[in-house]
Amino acid sequence: MLSDELGRRGKKMNEVDAFMIGVPKAGTTWLANVITQHPGIALSDPKEPDIVASHKGTFGRTDETPDWSRYDDCFSSDGIRIDASIHTFACPLAPERLASRAPSLLMLLCLREPVSRTVSHWNMIRDAKQDEKNGSDWSDFTTAWSDSRLRDDSLYGAAMARWLEHFPLEQFLIIDSQRMRAQPDRVLEEVESFLGLGTHSYDLDPRRHANTAMDRRPVTQLGRLVRGIFSIVPNWIKGPVVRSLQSRDINIYAAPLLSRTATPRSVGPEHISICADEICEDLAQFEALTGFSTSHWVGEIRSKR
CA–CA distance from 76 to each of 47, 80, 81 (Å)? Predict the structure, then answer.
């Protein structure tokens, strides 16, 4: 079991047992929600508490020392405690912070072909106008790619090099998001084995609990008003309502009156020409460090040139 394995490896972190790290738009929302069906897993609530990393979402950055006590309110059930703050992977400070406190932590590393991931992430930010809200203008992809807050999430080799300075490769389970759709049952078996858990029967519909374009429909003025009112409702009141809606894949902010249709933008040669060379060079580093084959990603990128 995980607790025995952690005991053999070294000090166990009291607050959390494992991390689900990776990159935005790589299937972590689906995986996080599905594995919570396992009675032996306790997922952080919220999914991304952003306690350890200096990266607080796409735009937030801070060098403040982590407040480890915040974990006291992140778990309400027993089981292996998993923090699903995905931006932890690209954070340059997180590996050393975690290694100094809990060198035995296990990492579920969710990744996706990085050019399509970058464009999807860019679309999400633009649809929600998060760039404008944070004083930036990502309307031009060249400008967005030059911003480290987008680019760093797609440079897997650079991030992995930092992690391997503090953690052995055996403490990482690398998961390709494509396999979550093609082989969801096999992916979950690997997660169970990696965490030392027994098997469980899951709802494996990969369309459920996914972070889709429908979920990122731009919010209207009425939607912002509703969100603002809901934000001041105490957690003990709104918590059960939120969990009930999430369990049924209901996003009230995707309703027509509260949101509008997002602008479709697909990966094109113009995106490939801007970032492909740097990404492919980085993928070669990632493969050399981990042994994880990236040839299928490189082939997909080249096919879109």
Answer: 13, 12, 10
